[in-house]
Amino acid sequence: MPCKMCIERGQTWNGSAPQCGFDAGAFSRENWNCATINALRDIADNTKQYDEDQYYAFVRCAEFGDFLYLSWYKNRGRTEHMWIVTYDEVPRLPTEQDCLKAIEQNKR
C-alpha cells in the first residue's frame, strides 16, 4: 500500500506511475518518485554532496536516531539507499513513520 504522502499527492504528471518506497513497510530500493522520499530529498537539498553523479546526504533526526542517510543517482526519481544511522546501533532501514517524523522535525 502506498505511503500517506503518496496517497495525498497522487500522480500529478503524465507518464509512469509513482512507485512508493514504503509499500512493504520499511524502505525499499524499488521506489520511484515517492512523495515521502522526495520530501526528504528536498530537506537535504542544501546539504547534499555530489560525487561522480551520485548524491548523498544526511538529514538530522534526533527524535528516533541521529541521522537519516540518503543516496541517489543524479536527479532521477529513484533513491537507492536510505538508512537510519546512530552512534551506538547498527544502521537500519527506516519505516514510513520514521521518515514522517524526520520531515516534521526538519520543518521547524
Description:
The protein is an alpha+beta fold. The chain has one domain (4-107). It is 25% helix and 22% strand. The protein has a 4-stranded antiparallel β-sheet. Helix 2 (35-43) packs parallel to helix 3 (96-107). It is globular. It starts with a helix and ends with a helix. The model has no long low-confidence stretch (mean pLDDT 92).
The gist of it:
The protein is an alpha+beta fold. It is built from three helices and four strands; from the N terminus they run ααββββα.
Offer a few descriptive terms.
108 residues, four-stranded antiparallel β-sheet, 25% helix, alpha+beta
Present the secondary structure layout.
Elements: H1 4-9, H2 35-43, E1 49-51, E2 54-60, E3 67-73, E4 79-85, H3 96-107
Antiparallel strand pairs: 1-2, 2-3, 3-4
Helix pairs in contact: 2-3
- Uncertain segments are none
Distance between the termini: 29 Å
Supply Rg: 13 Å
The average pLDDT is 92
Number of strands: 4
Which structural class do the helices and strands define?
A: alpha+beta
Number of domains: 1
- Helix content range: 25-40%
Count of helical regions: 3
Order of helices and strands: HHEEEEH
Note the beta-strand portion. 15-25%
Identify the strand order in the major beta sheet: 1-2-3-4
Shape descriptor: globular
* Main β-sheet description: 4 strands, antiparallel
